[in-house]
Amino acid sequence: MKHPLLQLNAVAALFAAGAAALAQATSIENDTGTSMVVVSATRTGLSGFDLPASVDVIDARASGASQARVNASEALAAVPGLVAQNRQNYAQDLQISSRGFGARAAFGVRGVHLIADGIPASMADGQGQAATFNLDMAERIEVLRGPFSAIYGNHAGGVIQLFSRDGAGPPTLELNASGGSDGARKLDLNAQGKSGGIGYLLDASRFDTDGYRSHSAAQREQSFAKITLAPVDGARLAIIASGLRQHDTQDPLGVSWATLQRDPRAGETDATDPQSPQRTFAERYNTRKSIDHQQIGATWEQRIGADRLRATMYGGNRDVIQYQAFSKAFQTPASHSGGVVDFARQFHGAELNWVHVDTLAGGKLTTSAGIEFARSRDVRQGFENFIGGQVGVKGNLRRDEDDTVSSIDPYLQSEWQAGSWLLSAGLRHSRVRIEVADHFLGNGNDSGSLAYRHTTPVVGIRYQINAHTNLYASAARGFETPTLNELFYSGAGAGFNFRLKPAQSTHLETGIKLRLRDGGSINTALFQVRTRDELATDLASGGRTSYRNAGATLRQGAEMALEAPLAYGLSTRLSLTTLRAVYQEGFGAVRPGSRLPGIPNANLYGELAWKAADERFGAGLEALASGKIYAEDANIEIPAPGYAVLNARINASQSWAGWRFKQYARLNNLLDRQYVGSLIVGDSNKRFYEAAPGRNWLLGASAQYAF
Q1: Where are the beta strands (DSSP E) in 584-642?
Q2: Number of domains in the chain
Q3: Is residue 300 over pLDDT 70?
Q4: Please, what sign has the CA dihedral across residues 90, 92, 98, 103?
Q5: Which residues span the domain enclosing 159?
Q6: Nearest to 220 by CA among 265, 250, 241
Q7: N or C: which end of the chain has fewer CB atoms below 10 A?
Q8: Residue 17: which CATH number?
Q9: 528-584, pLDDT tens digit by residue?
Q10: What string of DSSP letters covers 150-197?
């Protein structure tokens, strides 16, 4: 594999013009780029510039104008401190981490709290699925990092909130179509408008891909509906329903370093296969996952003078069946729960929040008080994945249980503003209860319960030096309970792990935010996180992972985000993160000072974009770079090397009568670099590596008609 750092000169050259322009930026002419109101961090609505926290707002319409809008990683690549990796495996979803939290997730998202339109996309145990985000209808995405994330409670190492747009204006009908490399194709049809005071938004899409890697084909269907209305003066009611359907999504699994070097598209061959030693594990066991997810929720907001009352309720169901890859020998122990996971989940929750505005000591005092409740119940079964000599089929029952997770979190947060000062403080008390009712007693009774509780305080201060410079500092305590999936296994084949403790962390951050002329901005932050009882991989094989509590860890880093308009329709954007994440205490074969796996020590996103004066044409050049990443705790296996890649895009739009047309083209990985896109942390068979695509293309077009 080619060393990526040779490309960093190209990255530096890409932004040389931007740096020169910034050196001359000494005044403010337009601050719209930094004054967008966000609800993250305080829930009360302040500009990102005024918050004593690291928060970024992504214009989802702009970022999605030249993307397929299939993976949230498309929009999140430009956020400092955040790593969003596309595994090229739709059976396991994205790999997202915030300042290192969530990096070791075996599938889905943990350690980062996901929210869509005020409704959690993370379950009560902290496990979330970014695939449930509807990117076609998204208006903006807010990304909160650092101490203020702790006010969202369990698994809030960071917070990602998606906000869909409201139906407005005359009725419109829009069709989007895109296609690209490896058989990627997507159709999206949506309608929106507002009539009689009722806004409506309807969307349906289908995405198909043959997959870049061997045995990685997928099909995803999504639906979305949103109705907004004002039943009484000062009130707003939003009703939102969504669905996700993925059937027989192939799982390519990870591969060894030798296989990756031989062919990055290939799967790992199974030399023990009695039919053919050339077949891969994924092919032999036909590893795959089917998902059916539906949910509905409603939010009522009522203005009462300067105060606001908000109530949210939601519910849904999620059915999953997954076929994993286990060797015959690993299926022998009586304690084994089988290679087929089959569960039906029902979940629901609610939040009540009151915001009160008053005056205190010559300043404005805003207090937010609320309580959140969430509950999920899984009817879960496990089966052997073989019958006789045939594998990859549902066999004998090996696990049968009901798993219930509930959480209740009251919170209180206040902010006081006077002159140049803003002080903010919050407190949240979380209680998480996990109950297991085991109905399969042939391998012992795993019934039992766990109860976790923790109080997370957060404080922050901001001082405005002048109209375009803010200094801030913040601190918090956070915690992460083990997710239900992290509790399922204990060691090699043993049952439910009731011994796991929650990880507890102390967060510190300080930063400076600058407004530049013409809407430009520079945000910088220094941070430190100390964690005890960090969750670490114990054993991981064939899609099943068990965990243990490790010693203390330390994360120290810096972030910088820059946005600046240049001359002649050009603009530049740069995000840079450095992060040192290490074990302070050793355990087992892990020595003090070992790097935490799954976390790069540096990553960069850069962009040079151009837009015509009439906005009918645009183009951009993007650069992404990452440092090397270790695959396991002891740091003895070959790490994923660092990389740097370049992407290019162009777009155009036209209007005629009531029609609006758009087209775009993308060419990703221009230099056709071979690199590891993501890692399966701690895999016991050393099949850690998941290759990213080489040079690939994407074309898209849309037609919208306004009635």
Answers
A1: 602-611, 617-626
A2: 1
A3: yes
A4: negative
A5: 4-706
A6: 250
A7: C
A8: 2.40.170.20
A9: 999 999 988 887 665 567 888 988 999 999 999 999 999 999 999 999 999 999 999
A10: GGG-TT-SEEEEEEEPPP-SS-EEEEEEEEEGGG-EEEEEEEEEEETT
